[in-house]
Amino acid sequence: MGAGKLKSWVPYAAGAIGGFGLLFGAMWGGEIVAWTDEHPGLAGWVQAVGSVVAILVVVWIDRGSVRRQLATQEAERQDRSRAALDAVEDALTSFAATDMALRNSNGDSRVFLQRRSTALIDAERSLGVVRYFLEQPLTSAKAVRWLQVARTELESLVAALDAYDGSVAHWREVHSVTERGGRALNQIIAAEEGLPSLNGGFS
Q1: Which of 71, 99, 128 represents a domain boundary (last residue)?
Q2: Are residues 24 and 105 located together in one domain of the fold?
Q3: Average per-residue pLDDT in the chain?
Q4: Transmembrane region positions (predicted)?
Q5: What CA dihedral angle connects 185, 187, 193 and 198, to 10 degrees?
């Protein structure tokens, strides 16, 4: 019999035992009381045994409650870890979007200046998501490391986009940061089974 089936029978068994106890007490309660009066030492033993049984029942019930609570907490942490990995994937899409904006500007730093605001807003949004998950209790050490990488790369991207003034030097800086961050995050996601690799033009 499995543990689940055994647990499902426990309430019925407890009820049957309790009912039998009531029936037994109703039928022979008087004789038992009279007999225990003739053996005063036995009453103390019965009381002690009853107290121990009551304590064991309380402990058993409490342990079951604790196990359920721990299982719920573990499931919540696993869900947060899964969502954290999704946040890393989302960070990669921010780098891919910036990379696409750079490509569509055809190397013209002034054209990219018109698209820089949208890229900055998207990068800041992704950075906020990554920072949020880094503040949460996570069960996966890998997820924490990946989020830290994503945070570092996104902070560099946000700084480069924020400082962008349309000059060639700043265009090259944004391009360099985008390529580096995109490659780093793409390698992380591609190495994890079950997560799609969003190349986004990164090698």
Answers
A1: 71
A2: no
A3: 76
A4: 12-30, 42-61
A5: 60
Supply 160's token pair: 């480069």
Torsions phi, psi for 125 (to 5 deg) = -65, -50
Question: Which range in 4-8, 13-17, 64-68 is most confidently predicted, on average pLDDT?
Answer: 64-68
Backbone angles phi, psi at 95, to 5 degrees: -65, -40
In this prediction, residue 140 has a pLDDT band, given cuts at 50, 70 and 90, of confident
Domain contains 201? no
Q: Assess contact for 136 and 125: CB atoms under 8 A.
A: no
Query: Do the beta carbons of residue 78 and residue 92 sit within 8 Å?
Result: no
> What SS3 class is residue 137?
coil
Whole-number Cα distances in Å, 44 to 24, 39, 41, 121: 20, 10, 6, 76
Q: Is 70 exceeded by the pLDDT of residue 120?
A: yes
How far apart are alpha carbons 202 and 182 in whole angstroms? 6
Write the CA distances from 124 to 62, 172, 186, integer angstroms.
Answer: 46, 20, 19
Task: Read off φ and ψ for residue 195, nearest 5 degrees.
Answer: -105, 130
**Interval 154-179: pLDDT, tens:** 999 999 999 999 999 999 999 999 99
Closest CA to 176 of 121, 110, 99: 99
The count of structural domains within the chain is 2
Are the C-beta atoms of 125 and 150 separated by less than 8 Å?
no
Q: Residue 185 in contact with residue 153, Cβ under 8 Å?
A: yes
Distance in angstroms (rounded) separating the CA atoms of residues 38 and 45:
14
